[in-house]
Design goal:
The protein is built from 16 helices and 17 strands. With 485 residues, it is of the alpha+beta class. Strands 3, 4, 5, 6, 7, 8, 9 and 10 form an 8-stranded mixed β-sheet that branches. Strands 12-11-15-14-13-16-17 form a 7-stranded mixed β-sheet, with helices on one face. The longest helix has 55 residues. The chain is elongated and about 95 Å long.
Length: 485
């Protein structure tokens, strides 16, 4: 039984070192970066990144053969002791470099789990080394198990090593394909965001919308700041201010370009808005960026767990949270984020019964129309987006109502995102105004499209915001004045 346990231990170590070695060789740039983060001098990183996986594969080959098990176990134990020492020194110094122990298969900052894993493997290697001489003992070799495995090991060592390498390459290939497809997904989402900005109408009936729906509960989180303090969403919201979560990541040039604005917003809007940058990567790198751009209170996520919980797959992006709920749709890209901050720090939302103030909006011909001049008749303000699948689904119904509008029904004014061309192609007969940043819709408390609100004859807000096709069409069909308090 004990011999079986030792065999399993040897093969386990061989498999671990084979996967680790092949994964590192498949990701040379990541391996060089990792050894550099652990303190290896720059001129030695290339050599270390090559020799380390080769040493791991040599240990794996030795562990497979009964005759060379002691040598493979010795090498494995030495490497694991080296890993434990490097991780311990980094943790003592307060540094948490990414451990790319298995190349692209897994990358995360070192910590106690990493240390314990290497300690456990070192224990297994020490046990195999201690008992490796047993494979040469006569009693062991005379046993049926010993003769069988010895013959198997003499005849099939090369085949086992080859099989382990092939399996490891398959695992690495599968995970690499996963990451490639995931990156392609992010690229497609970036293209979708560009199409929305340009007013391109997708052919799909129901396009994927980035971010969580407005008014939905904001996912809670607990992250560590650069000073080591734990920060939660609940604590950030206790001030009663809006919380702007700004998502960025290392290597994102667009993120770095807007960081000076992020620092300025933190200083200029501190009384009304809590701006919270959420990044990932090394603390010292983010700390240096914070000093350069005067950005404070940067929080670190391990991978992208918080960003993904908010469906923020593209960086830079930002979302506004008020009272624990999503207050505005996700803003993707620098321009949309600036518009979101402007909206969040601008005048308060118009309430039911309030008169519409001076609110100029650009029309399709490049002119300006002031919504405060809508007087003398009830008006349905329809907040629209040609690229919105829900809008596309109700377009024909709106146009039929527009053409056959009863005399006592409200008049229609469309306030839309997208380009003039995209909006002309919608075929509305009523006035169409452009609001690409959705700042007008946000001023009335609209969280997305399609949505609508009614203004009375005096230019006052006369209804709650109706969200969705059914609510919009119900407001459009209202033939009696809506009570105003």
């Amino acid at each position: 039984m004990f011999d079986t346990f030792l065999l399993v231990a040897r093969l386990l170590l061989a498999a671990v070192f084979t996967v680790a070695g092949v994964a590192k060789l498949s990701d040379p740039s990541g391996s060089r970066k990792s050894v550099g983060e652990f303190g290896v001098p720059a001129f030695l990183t290339t050599a270390f990144a090559l020799l380390l996986p080769l040493a791991e594969l040599a240990c794996a080959a030795g562990l497979v053969s009964a005759g060379w098990a002691w040598l493979g176990a010795s090498g494995a134990l030495g490497l694991l002791v080296l890993f434990v020492a490097a991780i311990s020194v980094s943790m003592i110094r307060g540094r948490r470099p990414n451990c790319r122990c298995f190349g692209q298969l897994h990358s995360s900052p070192v910590g106690w789990p990493t240390l314990f894993r290497n300690f456990a493997l070192a224990g297994v290697a020490a046990l195999v080394l201690w008992r490796s001489q047993a494979y040469a003992d006569t009693a062991y070799m005379e046993s049926g198990f010993g003769r069988t495995f010895d013959a198997f090991s003499r005849a099939g060592t090369a085949a086992i090593v080859l099989a382990l390498v092939v399996v490891a390459q398959g695992i690495v290939g599968a995970f690499t394909l996963y990451h490639v497809l995931r990156q392609n997904g992010r690229t497609l989402e970036r293209l979708d965001a560009i199409e929305v900005k340009l007013g391109v109408v997708p052919t799909a009936e129901q396009p994927q919308v980035a971010g969580l729906p407005a008014r939905s509960a904001a996912p809670r989180f607990s992250l560590t700041g650069l000073d080591g303090e734990t920060v939660t969403l609940q604590a950030l919201s206790e001030s009663g201010k809006g919380v702007l979560l700004f998502f960025s990541e290392p290597g994102c040039g667009a993120c770095d370009a807007i960081l000076p604005d992020v620092g300025r917003w933190q200083r200029e809007h501190a009384e009304r808005l809590v701006v919270v940058p959420i990044s990932q990567g090394k603390a010292d790198v983010n700390r240096a960026k914070g000093r350069t751009h005067k950005v404070q209170n940067i929080l670190l996520q391990l991978n992208r767990e918080v960003a993904e919980s908010y469906r923020a797959e593209i960086t830079p992006s930002a979302v506004l949270v008020i009272d624990g709920a999503i207050a505005r749709p996700l803003a993707v890209g620098a321009e949309a984020i600036r518009a979101l901050v402007k909206d969040a720090t601008g005048p308060p939302t118009l309430m039911k019964g309030e008169r519409v103030p001076f609110l100029p909006v650009r029309d399709l011909n490049g002119g300006t129309f002031d919504l405060a001049t809508i007087l003398g008749h009830r008006t349905l303000l329809l907040f629209w987006n040609p690229s919105c699948g829900f809008c596309a689904g109700m377009l024909d119904k709106v146009k039929v109502w527009e053409t056959n509008r009863p005399e006592d029904a409200p008049e229609l004014v469309v306030i839309s995102a997208g380009s003039p061309k995209a909006n002309r192609e919608q075929g509305f007969r009523s006035r169409v105004l452009l609001d690409s940043a959705f700042s007008v819709g946000a001023r009335f408390g609209a969280g997305g499209t399609p949505s609508a609100v009614i203004l009375d004859e005096a230019g006052r807000v006369a209804s709650d915001v109706g969200v969705g096709a059914e609510a919009v069409l119900a407001l459009a069909a209202a033939t009696t004045p809506v009570a105003v308090f």
